[in-house]
């Protein structure tokens, strides 16, 4: 019988966070709200494209707990992550007379969660919120960490740290997720495994077919492992002051540049997979990282159906200029997360020009390796 797994983490300057992963976990939202509250009301902000039957279970769970529910919907996708959407949510909550002791519940993918979380962080100077992600990408990564943000000229350029009190990752929601969207989420799990160490990477390789088959027990463990790796880093550097947390951006320097160049038409996990390979090759050039370590990561990504080479139509020099708006940039330098070896991440400070040259060279090598 499939088991639900639960953990609790204490976030610096914040509060305790209840995380529950497994089949049917959505039905425990009401009970968790009673434990984390009390709350006089719940505001459910749902992704318009998310599964309706599971949403009914969420609403029923809150109502069975005696919590009055307000409900609205947002379209999914990066277009939702805008200040206009947030302003609409603020005004809607004000019209609904939502009090400060309400719990906002974000139900959907990462875009809806990011946007609703930012609205929760700023409405009445901050109300508690919960997230019930409906994509693997959100379950394995975006659901925890407390980064809420919307896009302007660059991705996630305006936001605040505001961690959800409750995180529910119900793997039942992944049964009907489109194939490409599901595979996209596997990239963040691989990233966390590369940061954590070879044992988790080997477990993923051994269970790669079961992951592709969406086996509930393996999925539950993979998501739980992934969230534990991320939270172990987050609690040490919640507001990203010391630098530890930037390690979680492994692969994302290149990924965000690709996404921007393609006007966010590429799925995030696909861009991250390419970023892991390109930045991994850059680490072999800069740090002497064993090439076989990067090849091990590349092979796992490929086995999971993820791309490992940059899109042929993109010019690397032009694409990589996006790092000028990267949040890891400090003046004329940028901090790039790299692997010294699997399980040994580090932050490398480089002049922006040096980083551009290094990543462009690695880009060309990655592109040639698949020809």
From TrEMBL:
Its cofactor is Co(2+); Zn(2+); NAD(+). It catalyses: 7-phospho-2-dehydro-3-deoxy-D-arabino-heptonate = 3-dehydroquinate + phosphate. It is found in: Cytoplasm. GO terms for biological process: amino acid biosynthetic process; aromatic amino acid family biosynthetic process; chorismate biosynthetic process. GO terms for molecular function: 3-dehydroquinate synthase activity; metal ion binding; nucleotide binding. Zn(2+) binds at residues 188, 252, 268. Residues 185-328 form the 3-dehydroquinate synthase C-terminal domain. HAMAP family: DHQ_synthase (MF_00110). Belongs to the sugar phosphate cyclases superfamily. Dehydroquinate synthase family. Catalyzes the conversion of 3-deoxy-D-arabino-heptulosonate 7-phosphate (DAHP) to dehydroquinate (DHQ). This is 3-dehydroquinate synthase. It comes from Pyrodictium delaneyi. The gene is aroB.
């Amino acid at each position: 019988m499939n088991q639900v797994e639960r953990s609790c983490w204490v976030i610096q300057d914040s509060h305790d966070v209840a995380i529950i992963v497994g089949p049917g976990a959505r039905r425990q939202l009401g009970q968790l709200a009673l434990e984390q509250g009390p709350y006089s009301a719940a505001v459910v902000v749902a992704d318009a494209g998310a599964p309706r039957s599971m949403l009914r279970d969420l609403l029923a769970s809150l109502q069975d707990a005696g919590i009055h529910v307000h409900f609205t919907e947002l379209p999914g996708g990066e277009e939702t992550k805008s200040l206009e959407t947030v302003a609409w949510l603020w005004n809607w909550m004000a019209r609904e007379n939502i009090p400060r002791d309400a719990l906002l519940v974000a139900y959907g993918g990462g875009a809806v969660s990011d946007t609703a979380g930012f609205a929760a962080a700023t409405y009445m100077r901050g109300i508690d919120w919960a997230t019930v992600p409906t994509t693997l990408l959100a379950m394995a990564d975006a659901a925890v960490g407390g980064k809420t943000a919307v896009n302007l000229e660059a991705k996630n350029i305006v936001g605040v740290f505001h961690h959800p009190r409750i995180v529910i990752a119900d793997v039942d929601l992944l049964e009907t997720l489109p194939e490409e969207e599901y595979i996209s989420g596997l990239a963040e799990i691989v990233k966390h495994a590369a940061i954590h160490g070879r044992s988790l990477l080997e477990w993923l390789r051994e269970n790669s077919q079961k992951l592709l088959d969406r086996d509930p027990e393996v999925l539950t463990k993979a998501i739980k492992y992934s969230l534990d790796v991320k939270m172990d880093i987050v609690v040490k550097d919640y507001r990203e002051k010391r630098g530890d947390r930037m390690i979680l951006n492994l692969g994302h320097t290149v990924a965000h540049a690709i996404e921007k160049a393609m006007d966010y038409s590429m799925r995030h996990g696909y861009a991250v997979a390419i970023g892991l390979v390109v930045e991994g090759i850059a680490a072999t050039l800069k740090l002497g990282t064993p090439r076989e370590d990067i090849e091990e990561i590349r092979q796992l990504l490929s086995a999971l159906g993820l791309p490992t080479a940059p899109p042929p139509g993109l010019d690397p020099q032009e694409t990589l200029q996006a790092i000028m708006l990267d949040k890891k940039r400090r003046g004329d330098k940028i901090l790039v997360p790299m692997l010294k070896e699997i399980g040994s991440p580090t932050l490398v400070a480089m002049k922006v020009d040096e980083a551009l040259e290094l990543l462009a060279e690695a880009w060309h090598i990655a592109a040639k390796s698949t020809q």
